Amino acid sequence: MKLLHTADWHAGRVLHGQSRTPEVREVLREIAELARSEAVDLVLVAGDLYDTKHPTPDAEAAVYEFFGTLAQAGIPSVVIAGNHDSPVRLDAAGGLLGLAGVRVLGNARVAQQGGVFELYAGGERARIAALPFVSERRIVKVTELLEEDPGRWRERYRQGMRKLIQNLTAEFRTDAVNLLLLHGTMRGATLANSEYQFHCTDDYTLDADVFPEACNYVALGHIHKPQGVEGMPEEAARYAGSPLQLDFGEVGDTKYVYLVEARAGAPTRILKAHPLAAGRRLKAVHCKRDELDRRLGELEFDGWLKLSVALERPEPGLKDRLKRDYPNLLVVEQRLPERGLEGGNGIDHTRVELVEAFGQFYRDTRGEALPAPLAEAFGELYRATDPLADEPSPAEGAA
């Protein structure tokens, strides 16, 4: 059985005001064409199809086009929700997507309630355990978080996840290809250095021994850097990583999908780590102000750019002047010796990014923009904890 493993598309991602959805559509077309040309039997999507729980119509259109293309090629797929997805929304679409050969699990289920299922592909039976993202808050009660030692919270999370995986994999068969999809963090995983990592921490991780030997392949999502799992053979479990460089923490990362051959009762083989070409690359340039003029040639780049300039004093309007010549320049950081990051307009961009991150979290969880009064209150809390934060809260944080 030939598998294609992908994850972490983040359709709907906006990078410093620039929509990445057209690039997501482009890379999904590349992946779908690869699945067709390689005669893949089954596509595994290990979560985070979307960047928010309330994706834009363009983001949904890009995702549905992908599954429509697979359906036309007669290729089934299995999809689980990630922490950025809305489990309820994915489950609601599951019936319709099922007509296109897509098996969707938004909310985590035990085996007896549909968390495990079988399908036939490539002339073989596959038994698939699907485990969408499970927040630690669903396993560790809030009252326990308030009353107990953090080490016990983490251990309780691991025990709870172990029991859930044991339930899902208990009836794996020797005459079937046994697959597990999971969206979560394995111990020892190398993060992609992404700018905002709300759920990717070392606090709530799983050990490799949580997976039974009967698993032919564990298709992982959540970590954006493609990699194996510490303590497991390279062929047995992998993070596919994101198909695009999603933010400036992923500069220089090559993006892949994995083609995997799995057979009942036989070792799994990674047939190919296929590098993806679609989408625009990211680049970060760091320099001192007196070096900037002679290094402007480095901004001649067809991807998205971030420039960090070390200055003695703020230089208002620097970004606007540069963007006239380099329209793909998304970020200009002004680094001052006494304050760290400073924007050319006198705003502390560390705080702007923090408020933006809170605004994004609010949109993800509430489905609406962060109200201006709440943004102002958040800024007040920030200033109360940072003695250097003495400017007014940035209005753009509420956008």
UniProtKB/TrEMBL annotation:
Keyword Glycosyltransferase appears in the UniProt entry: no
Gene this chain is encoded by: sbcD
Keyword Methyltransferase appears in the UniProt entry: no
The organism of origin for this protein: Truepera radiovictrix (strain DSM 17093 / CIP 108686 / LMG 22925 / RQ-24)
Protein name: Nuclease SbcCD subunit D
InterPro entries: Calcineurin-like_PHP (IPR004843), DNA_Repair-Maintenance_Comp (IPR050535), Metallo-depent_PP-like (IPR029052), Mre11_N (IPR041796), SbcD (IPR004593)
Listed CDD domains: MPP_Mre11_N
Main function: SbcCD cleaves DNA hairpin structures. These structures can inhibit DNA replication and are intermediates in certain DNA recombination reactions. The complex acts as a 3'->5' double strand exonuclease that can open hairpins. It also has a 5' single-strand endonuclease activity.
Domain Calcineurin-like phosphoesterase: 1-226
The protein's assembly and partners: Heterodimer of SbcC and SbcD.
Gene Ontology molecular function: any one: endonuclease activity
